[in-house]
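Working notes for the structural subgroup meeting. M.R. asked for a predicted model of this chain before we commit to crystallization trials. I am recording the input and output together here so anyone reviewing the notebook later can reproduce the run.

Input as submitted:
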Amino acid sequence: MSNKPVPFMARLRKPTPLLFAAGAALVVGAAVRRRAPGSPPRTSAVPRPSASGPPRPRALTLLVTAHERVADGVVLLRLEGTDLPRWEPGAHLDLVLPSGLVRQYSLCGDPEDTSSYTVAARLVEDGRGGSREVHEQVQEGTELEVRGPRNRFPLVDAPAHAFVAGGIGITPVLPMLRALPESAEWRLLYGGRTRASMPFLEEVGKLDPEGGRVTVVPEDEDGRPDLDSFLADLPEDTAVYCCGPEGLMAAVEERLPEGAALHLERFAPRTTADGDGEFEVELHRSGRTLTVPGDSSVLAAVRAELPNTPYSCEQGWCGTCQQTVLEGEIDHRDDLLTDSERGDSMLICVSRCRGTRLVLDM
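Returned structure, recorded in token form:
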């Protein structure tokens, strides 16, 4: 019998036996490094939640058992534990990295596997450091704190589904495609800079063995995707899912046919040209008034006074920094809060004030 190891990607749908049992939840905010004999324990890097913020998901300590390059600039992580919370397609995890940075990654493995989670991360050269840390410092044997899963991009029932994925945006889409019944009507447009930079191409092809449902568009070969053709002739009430760069999502929004319902998953907050002026924020319970400059965030100003204010993604899509607003007109710049939540709360990492003053319940 051959002892040749089986590549991890070949085992995605059939989990390996557990290598590590992680049953104890850590104190929220403790970022766990790779174990080293005699190394001192780390202090909490993420502050405690405030009274008006949302409850944090429970934290788990999981072991990285695979750190595998699956495309140019893309690594796959497999994190193992025991009796892990179940999740549904579209869900993501918060990873607390060894430095204390917290980053969100879509789950792309098997939702029925309660022994492991699988995510993939693209290296962002000019990013804020999280992706580089995942690529260069996290490795097999590293223990990471994980929060979640949470799902703000769920797969809904619909007579038909159309998916548009750009690059790493394929990760939340993969579990959705696997979850659809064989009789479902669906189509996928998957674009990227080059074939080599597009993760999971082989698996995407296996989901459409007869052809006709999947269109793969590497830009160096075929130019930009033809969204007009892809979105033409959609059945009434089709659910259109898009995940990828902001330009791609804006283009899909512009071309969305009448009668279709659009679902977006953003990697960064939607930007606004207006309303970046200076304003004041009163912290009602603390009795302090702060000035928020035009080139800074409410979160940065608040944390200068209240360092324990919780935050995570700093991009308006995880919900950790949500705070109650007692007075003032909010300029919402997130795609996370529901209409009811927007009435009296905001994500202070990205949202601002439409006037000159906000009063927060802090």
